[in-house]
Structures are given as structure tokens and as C-alpha cells.
Amino acid sequence: MSEQDVAEYRKSLAIRVSGFDVPKPIKTFEETGFSPQLMNAIKKQGYEKPTSIQCQALPIVLSGRDIIGIAKTGSGKTAAFVLPMIVHIMDQPELEKEEGPIGVICAPTRELAHQIYLEAKKFSKSNGIRVSAVYGGMSKFDQLKELKAGCEIVVATPGRLIDMIKMKALTMLRATYLVLDEADRMFDLGFEPQVRSIVGQIRPDRQTLLFSATMPRKVEKLAREILTDPVRVTVGEVGMANEDITQVVHVIPSDAEKLPWLLEQLPKMIDDGDVLVFASKKATVDEIESQLAQTGFKVAALHGDKDQASRMEILQKFKSGIYHVLIATDVAARGLDIKSIKSVVNFDIARDMDMHVHRIGRTGRAGDKDGTAYTLITQKEARFAGELVNSLVAADQNVSVELMDLAMKDGRFRSKRDARKGGKVFILFYFILFYLAVKFLSGKNCFLMPI
């Protein structure tokens, strides 16, 4: 591709890059030069063509460069760092006894770590690469035993990985490929000290990949400190909702109206696929589960009070179709990658817009354009309504009259909107004055001229 072709292709994928000597994006997996075994594994998993982030990230990472990948949730970024990791490992000398890992993947929650672990195992199996998962809620002894047996890839939450290092279950001497996935969420959950500790124990000539849906100042600072001449790849707008997801917002009088609405709408949603419902409190999650179960829905609840074994069992039953509705808190549902989820319901609004983006990203995964996200918002939530309007407009989604009316009750939103209108009026007024002045100075009768 010529430079002009590359620029047009990136534009069509909504990709922006920065950095020196950035490799050209690919259009097919065949262009990567992956081994026949890896290509077969890719096809076996149903991957037909790379997603936007994969098109640009794969050639960058395969060239050995560090990368900052900023992409909306559900963009297919897991494969963008797992596939090159396998290539990297195959190029390294084999591990000796009690060596390893070579590749380290850090994720903010046990659920996301487990999802990445499963994905990595699918691609690694045919190449004889061993993958271990290390996160809380499972037996430390069993994890220590597995790590001692050796592995090329470890997928971990920061806290448990630090525990395993202290217990000398693994060594970082051979680690040369580090991935920090959903770095913004790791910082939100207070893992910055652990992340910095892990990075400090891995050799400086490593290849480092940092992926995040948003780039708050702390994450930006970390990236500058731990990456070497990285290429930054941004897909879409930072922190913007996935445009492939249809968003529907319902303004309702009070919290008491939420459950009746859900009971009425749920059968239609289930006809389209599985449903994920977010609530802000564990008690609310349990209450919704109880009410839906009594009505006959196949439903399960997921929150922090359930032990890891129970959570894994619930997720497995949800994936296998035993449950059609999953009610969850934010932390419990973090990192879920289940393609059968066609509807997300924000029973309670998210604590901020970043969390809202992450929530609705549980549907519309990896280019699936069938996902729908429903948000229930009450009259007392005008401030969030304003943020939601801005997000919907940025994602080219419809804004209802009811939502706009609610948003206008927030003084901050209203003043900004009025200021924008005032600015447009001022520009028009200034233009008219300028036009009249030019006509006057040129000696023409401006009042007889059309404006």
C-alpha cells in the first residue's frame, strides 16, 4: 500500500497512530506470517478477518515495538496481544526446569484474567505452550504447584502475582513480554503500587504492551515511564462508547418503576439472546435475581460475596445456556467476554461515564453490531443525564426529548449548552457587522443587498 492508501485505510478503520516509523496495517491474518499451526488455531476459533485494533496492533507488536493501545471494550484486543506473544515465545530458547514464564499478562480482575487465560489456551495448545492463571479466590497451593511445574505464559491479577513471586513460585528472569490489559481499571482498583512492583522485576529490555479503554493522567504517566519509544494506536475516540452498540435510554419517574419495566421488557430481550443486567449494590442484585426467578426466568446473580468457585460455575452455566439472564455488580462482571450477550441493561446508572462505557461494552463484542444497551435513569439523576447526552451525541446515537429535558435540569450541562448557543449567535452577529462594514466602506448601499 502507498502512504496515501495507508492513510485512507486507517481512516476507514477509525485508527489514529503516533510514533516513528509505524508499520503499515494489515487487512488479513495471512499477512502476519503466522505459522500454519497458529493460522489453523485462528480459523478454528472463528476469526475470519482482523478487527480494527488487530489490523494495526499486530504488525506493530510483531515487529518488536512497544505499544499503547487505546480501544473501546469489545474491540478484540486480547488476540492482538496473545497471538504475537505466542510468536515471541516460539522464538525464545526453551525453558529449563523452574524457569518461566516468558510472557506475563496482568489484568484488573479475576474474571478478566480467567477470560484471557481461556483465550490464550485456545491459541497456545497447538504450539505446546503452557498457560497458567493466577488470581484470588482459588487455592494458592494449587497455583503454586502449577507454576512450579513450569509455564510459558502466566495470566494474573497484580496482587496474586506479587504473592506468587514472594513465595518463589516463579521467577521473572526469563520474562521478556509484558502486557498490562485494562490499565485504567487496574488503577481504579488501586493496583498501581503492585503494577509498578511487577514492572520493576522484569528485565528492562522486555517488550511492553499497554492496553486501556481510557487514558487518565496516571496511566499516561506510567506509560511514559515503562515503555520505550512506543507506538500509540487509538481506535475511535478515547473513552467513547462502542458505535456498534445501539443505546436506548428510558427516563422513568422513580426507582420503583425499574423492576416492572424489566419484567415487561425481558422476554423480548431474551428472544434476541442472553441478557446482562447491572446493578450498583449487591443487595439489589440479589433482589432482582429473586424477583425474576419467582417469575420463571432462568437467572443467576454475580457479585463479590460469592466465592470464586461459585462465580466460575455461574459463568459456565450462563455461557452454556442454562441461564439466560445474569444480574451483576460492576466488579463481578468486569472482563466478561461472552458473545451470546445481546442486551445489557443498566438497572442502576454507572458511577461515571468510563464505567458506563465498560458496562455496555459487554455486548457488541469484536464487531458484532447486534448489541443493544438499555439504561434506566430517574428524575434525580440529571447530572449523569447530561454526561449521557454528550456520550450519545459523540457516538452518533439518538437523544430522546425526555432525556434532553432531564439533562437540562443540571445547571452545569445547561450553562455549557447555552454558552455554545451564545457563541454561535455572537459569530453570526459579528459576521453581519463585518459584512455591513465592508459594504459601507465600498460605497454600496448595503441595505439593498441580500445578506
From TrEMBL:
Specify the Helicase C-terminal domain's residue ranges: 262-407
Per the database record, which ranges form the DEAD-box RNA helicase Q domain? 27-55
Q: What is this protein called?
A: RNA helicase
Q: What EC numbers are recorded for this enzyme? A: 3.6.4.13
Would I find Nucleotide-binding among this entry's keywords?
yes
List membrane-spanning regions: 422-441
Source organism (scientific name):
Carya illinoinensis
* GO molecular-function term, one example from the UniProt record: ATP binding
Entries under SMART domains matching the protein: DEXDc (SM00487), HELICc (SM00490)
